[in-house]
TrEMBL record:
The gene is radA. Belongs to the eukaryotic RecA-like protein family. GO terms for molecular function: ATP binding; ATP-dependent DNA damage sensor activity; damaged DNA binding. Involved in DNA repair and in homologous recombination. Binds and assemble on single-stranded DNA to form a nucleoprotein filament. Hydrolyzes ATP in a ssDNA-dependent manner and promotes DNA strand exchange between homologous DNA molecules. Residues 3-175, 180-239 form the RecA family profile domain. ATP binds at residues 32-39. This is DNA repair and recombination protein RadA. The keyword ATP-binding applies. It comes from Acidianus ambivalens (Desulfurolobus ambivalens). The lineage of its organism: Archaea, Thermoproteota, Thermoprotei, Sulfolobales, Sulfolobaceae. One of its GO terms (biological process) is DNA recombination. The chain holds residues 83 to 321 of 324 of the full protein. Keywords: ATP-binding, DNA damage, DNA recombination, DNA-binding, Nucleotide-binding.
């Protein structure tokens, strides 16, 4: 865990839960129901990575892979202004890529290594959401194994990028009730081989009253247990 660096979320509570912020060299998954704040956190990190280290950033750029069409430049503008960054520069520092289906998403993943080698200032790669195309396209029990296999390869590729280029990888996953329903599909697990890749850090998000959200770390022995509350405001993620 040497040389790991952190990106602030703009919430001290959430940073505390994460041991200081979103880590480089690691994949962090945010999962939770619709409206739980996954996409808002992704927007916030693509802004915050640009902050200087003394303000909790890495003076870096972001790659934002949008699979659901929910990315909004206006949100980047508002969050950048609130963070004291020039909005136009902040928008220029985000490489936006829209993945139209799972094959396209995988193709973008295949090209990322070369892209980041050429753009070493990229310090975060975001995939929001990593699962939606796969879920929509590979329906039915007979396609589960193929789905898991493709998704695993994609996740492994992203993890390798994090390690090789000392960057943070953030993925999101819309999950309703049980966090393990998707990655740990029992149908796929039968047969003994571990088909699913467990990302470095998994954060479960839940809706609370009004603009409040609850975050909880799942399966991370090195991080403290417990829940924290944060808020989604006009300015972005806050305590
Ligand atoms: P999904 O699974 O549907 O993608 P999500 O977890 O990505 O959901 P977000 O889109 O991050 O959810 O969160 C949506 C919530 O963020 C809205 O319900 C709203 O409360 C809040 N939000 C979005 N934009 C703003 C804004 N400009 N000002 C304040 N709050 C906002
Ligand atoms: Mg979303």
């Amino acid at each position: 865990r040497m040389n790991v660096r952190k990106i602030t979320t703009s919430s001290q509570a959430l940073d505390g839960l994460l041991g200081g912020g979103i880590e480089t060299r690691t994949m962090t998954e945010f999962f939770g129901e619709f409206g739980s704040g996954k996409t808002q956190i992704c927007h916030q990190i693509s802004v915050n990575v640009q902050l200087p280290p003394e303000k909790g950033g890495l003076s870096g750029k972001a790659v934002y892979i949008d699979t659901e069409g929910t990315f909004r430049w206006e949100r980047i503008e508002a969050m950048a202004k609130a963070a004291g960054l020039d909005p136009d520069t902040a928008m220029d520092n985000i490489y936006y890529m829209r993945a139209i289906n799972s094959d396209h998403q995988i193709a973008i993943g295949d090209d990322l290594q070369e892209f980041i080698a050429k753009n070493p200032s990229v310090k975060v790669v975001i995939v929001d959401s990593v699962t939606s195309h796969f879920r929509a396209e590979y329906t039915g029990r007979e396609n589960l194994a193929a789905r898991q296999q493709k998704l695993n390869k994609h996740l492994h590729q992203l993890t390798r990028l994090a390690e090789i280029y000392d960057l943070a990888v953030i993925i999101t996953n819309q999950v309703m009730a049980r966090p393990d329903m998707f990655y740990g599909d029992p149908t796929v697990a039968v047969g003994g081989h571990t088909l699913y890749h467990v990302p470095g850090i998994r954060v479960q998000l839940k809706k609370s009253r009004g603009n409040k959200r609850i975050a909880r770390i799942v399966d991370a022995p090195h991080l403290p247990e417990g829940e924290v509350v944060f808020a989604i405001t006009e300015e972005g993620i806050r305590d």
